[in-house]
Every structure is written in structure tokens, then in C-alpha cells.
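Re-running Glucose-methanol-choline oxidoreductase N-terminal domain-containing protein to confirm reproducibility after the cluster update. Everything else is unchanged from the original entry.
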Amino acid sequence: MSTHDQQVSVSQEQPAHAAGEEQFEYVVIGAGSGGCAVAARLQEGGAQVLLLEAGVPDETPEIHIPAAFPKLFKSPLDWNYETEAQEHLNGRRLYWPRGKMLGGSSSINAMIYIRGHRADFDAWAAAGNRGWGYDDVLPYFRRGEDFEGGQSEYHGAGGPLHVENRRYTHEICDAITAGFEELGHPANDDFNGPQMEGVGRYHVTQKGGARHSAAVAYLRPALARSGPGTLEARTGAHVTRILLDGQEATGVEYQDSAGMRQVPASRGVILAAGAITSPHLLMLSGIGERAQLEAAGIPVLHDLPGVGKNLQDHLFVPVVYATETPGLKDATSEAQMSLYMSEQRGMLCSNVGETGGFMKTDPSLPAPDLQFHNGAALFVDHGFRELDGHHYTLLPSLVAPRSRGEIRVTSADPQARPSIEPNYLSDPHDLDVLVRGVQLARQVGDTAALARYRLDEVMPGPNVMERADLEEYIRQEAMTIYHPVGTCRMGHDDLAVVDDQLRVHGISRLWVADASVMPTITRGNTNAPTLMIAEKVADFILGQPLLPVGDSQVAAHAATD
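Result of re-run:
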């Protein structure tokens, strides 16, 4: 039986409870990456925990078949968010998928396991966030990991999250890597090891060719575990506000099919609903910028002006080539389906963005500002645009954006969606990096390594050559890479939302445990650092000693370029 077939107890319908009947020490809001991980660690530490998830159980087969994840976009398992019209992207409203099931976006993402660069975390620490430098967080990455290659100074073994070398890689993706090498970019078989720069295959959060989401890795074992701690997970539970007694969090109000409920939390509430919903719930609960709350008709219980600010995200842009070599369009063929169902091998093990790498557009930079995702498929408009024939796509990606946006509450109605304003490309530097990325993608596309596969450049196309035309192409075709962060920023200034133990400023017994606490976005895919954040805040909450900094040699050399 595969891992995701393990049966666990998840409540979808709950009987009515008498007042005071339910007894939980902690209530965790959101069963995405952060929520699954922190709930599991709290239960492991002996606590009585309730985990509330607005979505559904992770039972749909497409969740667990890696290459099927684009089929989940705009489905009932997707929150299907949309940004405000973007001034610098030709007025477009960008689609933002977010997982609406156990595992959250770790059940809908491309499974790439990237921690980030040493410089990312050292910058957090340099801003006054004690214990968040690279040397401090590396032990938490290692604790959470079960790396296929075994334990080392950079990797963990035996942790909840399985990380493996993907079972399938298309030959075109390896040829793209060879093209980068032809241009002088070094090969790198481990972007989470001694250095981030270079090109190669991505490690993925899969186990035996199946997706290993946070729900599979953390939640299911915790629900099945016996011990002093307890954990109950409820789906279909849409949290409407955090309950406060003065400046103390005392519980949660949520709505399910039976109506509105309140559940107390004797030791506190952990908000892990993600970079959109975590600040939105704070604002719905009366915690946020006074003027914004008053405009929405929400009583102000705690004026905290940074809530929702500091929104950051990664953008990428497709550079597409036609080819005669069949790619992932064939993943759903009868032969590939049979191979996957019998052996969990073949094209359906693909995560689409199979290879890539990190590089600097300026050699003087302290860390990469550009990432590539490469796939043997047409990936434009999140996979919704279709063209005849076969294609491969290089996706240069902006990983150190300077543009900042915000999440705003629009109504006191908890069912009303917040306003998402990423303010993409408001800093001209970000557009410049993407232009350089498209130029580099074209150089790679013209290398000898790809000669046997290359037909025509389909996008941007031969008529898009001048700088102004490239900028216009980017404004029209750039997409989110699904990495929103930063809206409950960690720090100690007036616009910080949580302190360096992830406690909400001015409110006791309330923590945030997701990507919203990042002061600045990490370079690369954000699922791994979100899990690390949850691992670490669990120790803060339980009052456990922090994991010690690793070997001094690792501390001196890990993940530097």
C-alpha cells in the first residue's frame, strides 16, 4: 500500500458540542505545509491539538500523481485567487492557485525541494531576528528531511518529509542543462548542498514516485500516532475569526455545514493559513491597520499596521520552442498510465519543471537573482494555453524581487475575499532581471546541446528582439510561481507583525507558522522553508531547547556561492 493510501481519522462532519465540552490546548488554523508540520510536532510533544482546515481531505488521485498537478488548477480543490489589475503587467489580473485540501499548496505544487540561499537567512538574522541565520535554521531543515541519499552535513535522514531524486527525467530537460553548461554554468547535483549556483536536476518531495505532501509526511503519521499528545483534524471548517479576551487569544470561531462554532484553546492559537489568509484572518479578528479595519467596518481590537503589508512573490516568463520529440503531452497515454499504476515510474512521476538552476545576472551580487525551471512541455498561462505539436519551455524566474505589495481586507464578511495587490514590477529592477533571464534562455536555446531537439522559437518568437519588445512580452506573459510570502513579517519595528519567536506583537498566546512571517522572500521554491519555519516555531511554543548549530565546517561553507 502506498503512503497516501494510509487510512487516518479526519472529521468532516462534527456533532454539536455543549459549551465547554471540547478541551484543546492548541488550535491550529490551516492544514497546509505550516499547519500540518506544527500540529504534528505539537502532538508529538504531548499537546492536545485541534487542526482546522476549510478545504477537503486529500483523496483525489490527481493530488498524489506528480505530473497531474496542473489538472488541479481552477478545480474545486483550488482557492482560485485573482490579483488586482496589475499596472505594470498591462492591467492583467493574475491567477493565483492555492490548495484547498489537506496539505494545502503542498498538495498542488510542483514538489521542488529548495531551501534558499545562506544569504536569505543571514539577512533575516542581520535585521535583528535572533536565531534565524543559516547556521541556526539548517538543523531544522535536516530534522524535517528524509533524504534519499542519506544523512550528511547538509541533509537529514529519518525525518517526516521524503526528498528524492525524481524517478523520471525527460531527455530534453537534461539537454537544456547541457546547454547551460555549454555556456559556462557549472553542473550542480544538489542546490541544497555546498552551493546554490549551477544547473541540474531538482530534488523533489516525492516518495516512491508519488507526491509526498505535508499532509502525507506530517499529518497522517501524527493522526495515527498514540501517545500523550492528541491530534484531531477537521475539514470543511472555515475559520471566521480568532477569539480574543483583551490582548490574549483564547480560541477560534469557525463555520462548518452545521453552522457557526467556537472552540477554546487553553494554551493558544497558531495561525498557519498562508500569506493570503493569515493576515486576512488577523484583520477579520480586529488585528491590523486601524484605518483599513475601520473602512471595512471591523472593530479595532489591536492596531497593528504591518498586517498584510510586505507581500512578495516570484515571477517567471516562458520561452518556448517547438520540437518533434514527444514530451509530457504523452504522460496520460495508455502505456504511461499502465507503467505508473504498476511500477510508479515513467512520465507521470514528472514534476514538469524537472531541471533548472540558479545564477547571477551580475557577478558582483552576493547571491543568485535568477532561477530557471525547465520542462519538456508547453507551460504558458499555467498550462491552460494549448498549441498543436510538441514543445519544451525554459522559464527564467525572478527570485530576489524588490517590488512589494499587500493583502487588504475588503469587508467584515469572512466569506468576502481579500484584495491581493502584489504590485509586480513596480521596482524597475525586477523587469531588468527578467529581461536578462529571457535573453539567457534564448542563448541556451541556441546551443549545440539542443540542436537535435530545436525547431522554431515559438515564444517570444523571432519578431520580439528589441529591448522594448522584450519588456512588453514580459508584461503580457509573466506568471506567478506560486510563492507569496511576507504579509505577517517577522521583526521588531513598527511594521513587523510577529517577533523572532513568531508571536504576534501585542497579543499573547497567538503565533504565526507559515510563509507569511518571512521578512524577505527566499531564493527558490518556498515550500521547504515554510516547513522549516513550522518545525522551529513548534519548539518555541513547547518551550523546548532549540536545535544546536551544526558542525563548524558546515557553518563556514554551507550553501555559499
